[in-house]
Specification:
EC 2.4.-.-, glycosyltransferase, Glyco_trans_2-like, single chain, Nucleotide-diphossugar_trans, 16% strand, alpha/beta, Spore Coat Polysaccharide Biosynthesis Protein SpsA, Chain A
């Protein structure tokens, strides 16, 4: 029998853990020749998530848990589950049931057809605001253009299947800011995508706020491209040329017409504008330097407080 490892990060998901476990268990009871293990990764939860994991794992050998010492982030939680998975294939999905477990047989089917990675291409339900739909679509388009990976629209989902050979490659990566959505495309393995409509959260509220979304967006952009640094250099040359030509034209015009060079307001606005551009460029450079700083320290991506295996 082939074994499927299912990695589920959990941050304050006490109400969803029993639900998703039961649904996965029901699904595998209908699939022949497959057994499964679920690796829950408690990413610094403040509710009763850990107590529930300990309770349900006592009577279920197919449930494993990893408890972090604090919140290290969703991507590091998925990476931890991958590091300890032992299946012939690994499926990562969220604990809030927005990733429907009923899609698992389809993922396995595509894997059996010979694909190393099976992505899921997410479609938002009607309840999701148009702002969320449009910003997500624009972000992945922008990321595809500016980076070295080709993320399909809606492909920005951590609901995917990876063959054990792919998991071994990711396991040996030690990036401080890991971006699995991009890595799964960057590695170049044989991929296929299947569509699904995201469901509503079963219980609880999402802790994925705007600040975390912005940080995740910058991580994705800077993890796979240095084009923003070139963009900063191009902006510097362009604005310098515009300033030189514009000011030179203004001086010649003032000399020919005999008018004085005046306008302190426009001067102040120009200084503020170029100061803002300089801060943007410094900010871009600072992000890359910060990533280098974190990488060279070689601190672990996560710290495990406890596990049951």
């Amino acid at each position: 029998m082939k074994k499927i490892s299912i990695v589920i990060p959990a941050h304050n998901e006490e109400g969803n853990i029993p639900l998703i476990y039961q649904r996965i268990k029901d699904i595998f009871s209908k699939i022949a020749n497959y057994r499964f293990e679920i690796i829950f990764v408690n990413d610094g939860s403040r509710d009763n998530t850990q107590q529930i994991l300990e309770q349900i794992s006592q009577n279920n050998e197919d449930i494993k848990f990893i408890e972090f010492s604090r919140n290290f982030g969703h991507q590091h939680a998925v990476k931890a589950g991958m590091d300890y998975s032992t299946g012939n294939a690994m499926i990562s999905m969220d604990a809030d049931l927005q990733h429907p477990p009923e899609l698992i047989p389809e993922l396995i089917k595509k894997w059996e057809e010979g694909f190393d990675i099976v992505h899921t291409i997410r479609k938002y339900p009607k309840q999701i605001s148009s702002f969320k739909r449009k910003t997500s679509k624009l972000y992945y388009r922008f990321l595809t253009r500016i980076s070295d990976v080709n993320l399909s629209e809606g492909g920005g989902s951590d609901f995917r299947l990876m063959d054990a050979s792919v998991v071994d490659v990711v396991r040996n990566m030690h990036e401080s800011d890991i971006f699995l959505r991009g890595l799964s495309y960057w590695m170049g393995f044989k991929c296929v995508g299947i569509h699904f409509t995201a469901c509503e959260r079963a219980t609880g509220e999402s802790s994925y706020n705007l600040k975390k979304m912005m940080k995740f967006a910058f991580t994705g952009i800077t993890a796979f491209s240095v084009k923003p640094l070139y963009l900063a250099a191009y902006l510097g040359f362009i604005f310098s040329a515009i300033a030189t030509v514009g000011y030179g034209t203004y001086v010649i015009h003032s000399f020919l017409t005999g008018t004085e060079i005046s306008g302190w307001a426009s001067l102040i606005m120009t200084v503020v504008f170029f100061g803002g551009v300089q801060l943007i460029i410094l900010g871009i450079m600072g992000i890359y330097l910060g990533k280098i700083f974190n990488q060279v320290k070689q601190r672990p991506n996560y710290i495990i407080r406890s596990k049951n295996f």
